[in-house]
Amino acid sequence: MANRVSDQSFYVDLPKHADFTTLSDDANFQSLPQDWWIGTSDIKGSTKAVQDGLYKTVNMVAAAVISAQINAHGGAPFPFIFGGDGASFAVPPAWKARACSALTAVRHWAREEFGMDLRVGMVSVSDALSAGFDVKVARFQVSDGVDYAMFAGGGLSWAEAQMKAGRHSLPEASAGAKPDLTGLSCRWSHMPSKHGVILSIVAMQQEDAPLQRFAELMSQILALTSRLDANGHPSAKEGPGIKWPPAGATLEAHAQRGTGGLGKARRKALFESLLAWVLIKTGIKLGGFDARRYRRVVGDNADFRKFEDGLKMTLDCDRETEAQLRALLAQGEEEGIIKYGLHAQSEAMMTCIVPSILEDNHVHFVDGASGGYTAAAMALKDSA
Fold first, then answer.
1. Residue 188: phi, psi to the nearest 5?
2. Could you tell me if 348 and 244 are in contact, meaning their C-beta atoms sit under 8 angstroms apart?
């Protein structure tokens, strides 16, 4: 259990793991300092939004939580994780005030722009410890330019449950509050399955399951998915596709318009995406920007699998491996090791945060395009 206090250097100093399979071992995670704060968010009614065909909007709002935090903290490293219909993060105590301001501003923005009810909460790591849960993190390096936080210990899930129960909520943002969502976009086309199905998986440890047995099962699952092309990454090697006009132009306009008009912001998004489309098609480089290289880096940087008090993956999967995965997960549930949910669809999609197109530190969140993690999590609840 975490019992120490530290400053923001804790996360910066964590080692970066290049092999995802090593993160099935709890020993590769370190406990957050007890004076840090956990931020959580979740869209109330996201299942209905999925049924109404609004999952791209759901993903955009969830990614906005992370975008606002990145901008609020000036791009300094901190642990965050994207969950499809919400996002979570952790910050040192010195950052708490601006983290709360950014979180409540996104809640206000989601309501004003999309009519979506974003629940948000902040709770201390020490409270999670008092409740019997740890909050452990590790850094998974997906490329030279980007790494993502992984979470273990149960504390993050506890914090999310507390938020959904109406505890640790935050006061409303001041009138006119606007989150800084600079860099938030969704210009890439959906990624159709090349091998059979896009499979979204959520597998969580059952309460009394031995940690070692859970780790062994996770290793078995990852060994199976390692046989897939690119470990099941839904993006092509050259990066995701792009069409014009992009389906997400209006969503991006909602994120980037600030106090300006939606139409003007949409025209700007359309122009920039048209320019990118032309550069990718022609291979022309403009002002030091190599669009084809950027597209490849997007694929390299994408977040299609993660540990968040369990395993979450969005995979491009062949039917044989899908059947094997289903059998392995069902066996794990029958043995009392995990509870799990699956959702199959034909396409994956990507939501992006791009501080600069000239650097390689842009992050890209992958989810299933017709329910993804939200539908998988609902299947998990239904089986509980």
1. -75, 150
2. no
262-282 and 249-256 are packed helices; what angle lies between their axes, rounded to 10 degrees?
Answer: 130
* 3-state helix, strand and coil shares in percent for the chain, rounded to the nearest 5: 40, 25, 35
Compute the mean pLDDT over every residue in the chain, rounded to the nearest whole number: 93
**Positive or negative torsion for Cα 299, 229, 280, 187:** negative
Q: What is the DSSP letter of 232?
A: G
Please answer whether residues 41 and 103 qualify as being in contact, where contact means their C-beta atoms are separated by less than 8 angstroms: yes
pTM for this entry: 0.94
Contact 364, 340 (CB under 8 A): no
Note the helical H segments in 226-364. Answer: 249-256, 262-282, 291-301, 319-334
Scanning the structure block, which residue is given the tokens 């992050």? 363
Task: Enumerate the β-bridge partners of residue 221.
Answer: none
- Report the distance separating Cα 99 and Cα 8, nearest Å: 13
In this model, does residue 210 exceed pLDDT 90?
A: yes
**Residue whose pair of structure tokens reads 């998915």 in the numeric block:** 225
- C-alpha to C-alpha distance for 12 and 30, rounded to whole angstroms: 12
Partners of 44 in the beta sheet? 117
3-state secondary structure of 227: coil
Q: Are 187 and 249 in contact (CB under 8 A)?
A: yes
